[in-house]
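Hey all, quick one. A colleague (J.T.) asked me to put the WT7 job into the tracker so the inputs and the structure tokens live in one place instead of scattered across chat threads. No bug as far as I know, just bookkeeping. Sequence used:
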Amino acid sequence: MSETSLPFHMKFEPGKLRKEEWERSIKDPEGYWDEKARALDWFKTWDKVLDESNKPFYKWFVGGVLNASYNCLDRHIKTDKKNKVAYIWEGEDGQVKTITYYQLYREVNKLAKVLQDLGVRRGDRIALYLPMIPELPIAMLAAARLGAPHVVVFSGFSAEALADRINNAGAKILVTADGSLRRGKVIELKKIADAALEKSPSVEKVLVVKYAGNNISMKEGRDLFYSDAINGVPANTYVKPEPTNSSDPLFLLYTSGTTGKPKGVEHGTGGYLVWVYWTLKWAFDVNDTDIWWCTADIGWITGHSYVVYAPLMLGLTSFMYDGAPDAPQPDRWWDMVERHGVTIIYTSPTAIRMFMKFGDDWVLRHDVSTLRALGTVGEPINPEAWLWYYRTLGKEKLPIIDTWWQTETGGFMISPTLGIELVPLKPGSATFPLPGILSEVLDDNGDPAPDGQRGYLVIKTPWPGMLQTLWQDPERYKTVYFSRFEGTYYTSDYAIRDPDGYIWFLGRADEVLKVAGHRIGTVEIESALVSHPSIAEAAVIGKADEIKGDVPVAFVVLRGNYMPSDALKAEVSKHIRNTVGPIAVPADIMFVNKLPKTRSGKIMRRLLKAVVGGASLGDISTLEDGASVEEVKKALEEMGGRIG
Ligand code: WT7
């Protein structure tokens, strides 16, 4: 961990303005947010900024009425932003489309009408399973226009994962596509959706976008082509935006936790929108001349908040790309930055490390001088990757905005702020909490950890962007987030505060992995493993990976009549791909006769991790059967030193 701050070209008095803004927000949160929330268009303003009467179910802007689609579209078409480009979209094959605010407004209205005609009413859930194409934000905004919470499922998820999410949400409609495209190959989304729908009786109608051009089967009475449906409504259709309450759910987004079942994170409307609006402004100081590129897929929270809601509310032009980052070659991104004049790129440490490995030349052959800031998110960024980003893309001039946050937090929480004041940066630290965020690093007992000592990051007071609950599971919301340290929001992240007050993140403190920045629970992968007929028991741990941060490694005990083989390994990998998705596929699968367990029967993941990482085994006195440690080691040796 390096603590040298780099010489920046900006001159400022370090942190004074930022500190003042933060103090104001903490001293008088209601006054502060009352003022900030007015940046949005409300049909009716709130009676109370924050209702804390039913902790930890906080309610923001109580009595306030607004509509998300109105704030993203209608408000702009009355201004000179009407004909401004909202999205520049590029496909992997080089096809480029642009869509202005007015065009987006018209498309959203038409789709809202289609959905309304299909019976969608306020409160109904709409599942979206789409590639990174303009129809995805259009469908989100159409749902929001009707007050119908959307449930976006990342298009890399399997049929089973899609069905689980649709069923938990009780979605009535699914919007999907014939297929998605990667490196010229078609991934048959509709086919996967069909398999999911066999297990999802709540879905009444399916809209299918023609994108990949592959042949698909359409189910009579259930499936409709998106284009046919849109062409069936007048081109100038107007659907009145539903006057939703501030705390009506805007969307559900499923994310992994420590159990086998993903959690349906529920975000409200008013608080969430206010939070993403201000955080994007603060962190990146975005303005009318920017070409903003958040590289995240909309299937994750980063895409919801910073490809869709915040940039649209702020009237920005965003660039959106659907394709592999190295197609046709490793300079694809820099070629696009140059051609479209991207001014801010916001991406992940995994992507940065991958480009670093491709070599500087791929960047240097392009004019990327339009860039003015570089962002990162998703996992801790190692100083080496930070410095590469700073030197190669930033030419030692551009600030690196490392934003720490979570699906649950709605938007950035800890980050440098170009829009308030840039504090001196330290490579690898996300710097300080944003206004409105009172964070602390606690030790195991819940006492503040001394500076420089690792502890758990908590957030001590509510903020507008926080999740409202877990869908239909308020008890789980309380236990997951507010019971580890009674009454305080628990992030499940390890962190250190250094003597200057800078926060450094050290990864998850629970059984959750960040694989290439994507969140996946080890228990989720274990459940999928034991659902294969050959597997009796399984344990999954994370192994450090040079590019992806973590990769899952599985230890499996086979049922009596199965023998270990490469063919079985391949079959198990395929099974995980089909039941969870490609991100969950273990980098290695080890066949063992036993798993190391404590006397009380708990799998000793710590020990498996130590063995894989080559660390010392530490205290194994609670181990039920010492022999199994040897066995794990032996299995590893048999792998031919591929691990550890
Ligand atoms: C987890 C949340 C929030 C957008 C994408 C991920 C890790 C996220 C950082 C960062 C260190 C980070 C944390 C967090 N994380 N950003 N800048 N530095 N760690 O959302 O999938 O809900 O994952 O990602 O471990 O808890 P998510």
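Adding what we noticed when we looked at it: The radius of gyration is 24 Å. Residues 101-117 form the longest helix (17 residues).
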